[in-house]
Amino acid sequence: PRRRAVGAPARQSGAPRPVVELVVLFRLGVGWMAEHAPVYAAVLDGIAAELEAAGYALHVAQGDSWRPQAARGTCAGRIFFGAWEAGQEPPTGRSAVPTVWVMGMPPPGFGGDHVQVDHAAIGELAARHLLDLGHRACAYLGSALGSPESAIGYRGDAFASHLQRGGATAHLLLHPGLIRLGRQEHRPDAGVVRTLLVRMLGLSPRPTALFVQADMVVPAVYRACKELGVLPQREVAVITCNNEGRYLGGLRPAPLVIDIHAGHLGTQAARTLIARMLHPHEPALRLTVRPTIAG
Q: What is the β-pairing status of strands 256-259 and 292-293?
């Protein structure tokens, strides 16, 4: 007989599987995201595979149309995926339904478990690698520094802090319009990328290394560098993050990549929810997944 997965619900043969609701909060449509946003798709796949192995049925809802009182049917557990935005009804306090948040930042007062990328560790890893290579003037290209509304920005905070502790200079090339984001759009603004690189080239001393916020921005960085007469990985070292081959496959020389282990983030979110359903009264957890250099 097939062995039941650890944490799988005991049920009689033929009985319906208990339902876990996955509420996707990113404005990107779920179908579009699965096809065009590799890092998010990997998280979704990790969640789905782990819950399937444990015997749960997964119901996916889009966050902009989801409301707690409108949740369909009996829900054994819930995963929120993404960042909460103004206008959505926030789940605060300890929910009657076991709840886990993965990626993004939950709203103030959220009382469930939170599984997140370790953004600070990403910035530190990038800085440590560049310091080890001898770089003493570096730059970070991103949307903003870290805040409760923009956790990804903590990559830049930690990068700059660790470089400065190592005796190097850290220049922050920031623009809030770096990423164009809508329901069917998630891409860098090429004009903004070029403007930031022009700013970098005017710095003195000129940075010899560039840490880019995320892989999806790197193709635009390479194109702008070519237009500006700069050779990536020769005249300026490029290091990026997320490990999304879709964006990086055609880039030569290839940038150095930090892997956030997106699939494992999804797996860990599902495992955390399963544990929470078994032990609903234990203290809430905040878990981070450590990044590594890809390869």
A: antiparallel
Judge whether 11 lies within some domain.
no
Q: Do residues 143 and 125 both lie within one domain? A: yes
CA–CA gap between residue 85 and residue 178 (Å, rounded): 19
CA-nearest of 135, 134, 144, 293 to 210 is: 135
Percent helix, percent strand, percent coil in the chain, to nearest 5 = 35, 25, 40
Residues 160, 64 share a domain? no
DSSP state of 250: T
Give CA angle at 219 (44, 47), nearest 5°: 5
Is the torsion defined by CA of 131, 133, 137, 141 positive or negative?
negative
Query: For residue 23, what are its two tokens?
Result: 């509420």
136 with 238, same domain: the answer is yes
For every one of its 295 residues, what pLDDT tens digit does the chain have, with 9 covering 90 and above?
333 444 555 555 556 788 999 988 877 667 777 777 889 999 999 999 999 999 999 998 887 777 664 444 578 999 999 877 655 555 554 567 899 999 888 888 888 999 999 999 999 999 999 999 999 999 999 999 888 778 899 999 999 999 999 999 999 999 999 998 766 677 899 999 999 999 999 999 999 999 999 999 999 999 999 999 999 999 999 999 999 999 998 899 999 999 999 999 999 999 999 999 999 999 999 999 999 999 7
The structural domain count of the chain equals: 2
Whole-structure pTM value: 0.89
Q: Is 62 exposed, middle or buried (CB count within 10 Å of its CB: 0-12, 13-18, 19+)?
A: middle
CATH number at residue 89: 3.40.50.2300
- Same domain, residue pair 29 and 128: no
